[in-house]
Amino acid sequence: MRGFRTITSAAAAATLTAGLLGAAAGAGNATARSDSGTDSGIASVPSAIRTVSSGWTVPWGLSWLPDGSALVTERDSFKLFKLTQAGTRTEIGKVPNVVTTSGEGGLLGLAVSPNWNSDHYVYLMHSAASDNRIVRMTYDGSSLSGYTVLVTGIAKNKYHNGGRIKFGPDGHLYATTGDAQNSNLAQDRNSLNGKILRMTKDGRPAPGNPFGTLVFSLGHRNPQGITWDAQGRLWEAEFGNSKYDELNLIESGKNYGWPVCEGSCSTSGMTSPKRQWTVSEASPSAVTYADGALYMAALRGERLWRIPVSGTSTGTPTAYYTTQYGRLRTVEKVPGKNTLWLSTTNADNNGGEPDGADKVFQVDLQ
């Protein structure tokens, strides 16, 4: 748990503020790691922003259908919606067995099956009565049915529930789990918490997993963002505790340090982040890749970070829309376009805005 919607003068001074059209941006003071990453060259940057849809209450997960529309979850209503590129929103249904944790739990991430045209599967991660779990449902284009549990036993708590799920380039499903406010779980290989999980479409450990279980990497506190770059490398955004938030390059079997380390780590056997931010600048949720850069949505930091990547190195981060739109939760690249969708969660506990205050934006990259 962190981050009320307050902006100090120091945090505001860390970046130049981008206006409504995003024409200006600030460089921020994200801490450079010792990997000596250099800018790969700016291929494109945010150039314009417009509202696609308004009237949302804590939209959390977003995944694309083959027709270019998106499925979107609302965390606290437990509802699943379809949102077209033109901004038409349709309620599909309510996911059963979801409970709130009165904090960061509820209906979280979702992932449309890569074979949706043939199987019509949608995968979701949510808090239930006794745990966090990953389930599969069928969306036939009009209704939601066939609730099937794939993974149970992920400990839940009021905070630190992780929750992002996505299909990787290898066709397997990846999920981020928080430490459920029990930091020791992050270092326990027998626990599903504080991990990135990798599984088959039926919820079994994917072939090649490092420990023969669902666990792909460990030592995470509260990861809420994963994405892959153009070369298929896996990147992860993670909430720190009180010092540093992290951007990690994830590799099979590696240990990312929590709770031994927060940010840069010199402990043998643990992997340091590629970038780190003070918590007031970030508190990151989703991350996506587009045109040579990672884009990371920041909640407490109330900004969109652009981080150039070249191979396994990162360039100088730049902040956009600082304090313009409040708490930024989810960012995803629009398939087939050099465009992002970006959503807010100002109606959550820390945002202080009323129900219906959240929006989905389109960000054009040029």
Largest sheet: 5 strands, antiparallel
Q: How many strand units? A: 26
Low-pLDDT ranges? 1-39
Spatial strand order of the main sheet: 1-18-17-16-15
Order of helices and strands: HEEEEEEEHEEEEEEEEEEEEEEEEEEE
The computed structural class is: mainly beta
Question: Secondary-structure map with pairings?
Answer:
Layout: H1 9-13, E1 31-32, E2 46-56, E3 59-64, E4 70-74, E5 79-83, E6 89-94, E7 107-112, H2 116-119, E8 121-127, E9 132-139, E10 144-154, E11 165-167, E12 173-176, E13 195-199, E14 215-218, E15 222-228, E16 234-239, E17 244-250, E18 275-278, E19 284-290, E20 293-298, E21 303-310, E22 313-314, E23 318-320, E24 328-333, E25 339-344, E26 358-365
Describe what you observe in this structure.
With 366 residues, this protein is mainly β. 2% of the residues lie in helices and 42% in strands. It contains 2 helices and 26 strands. Strands 1-18-17-16-15 form a 5-stranded antiparallel β-sheet, with no helix packed on it. Strands 19, 20, 21, 22 and 23 form a 5-stranded antiparallel β-sheet that branches. Strands 2-26-25-24 form a 4-stranded antiparallel β-sheet, with no helix packed on it. A hairpin with a 4-residue loop joins strand 9 and strand 10 (144-154). The two termini are 36 Å apart. The model is unreliable at 1-39 (pLDDT under 50).
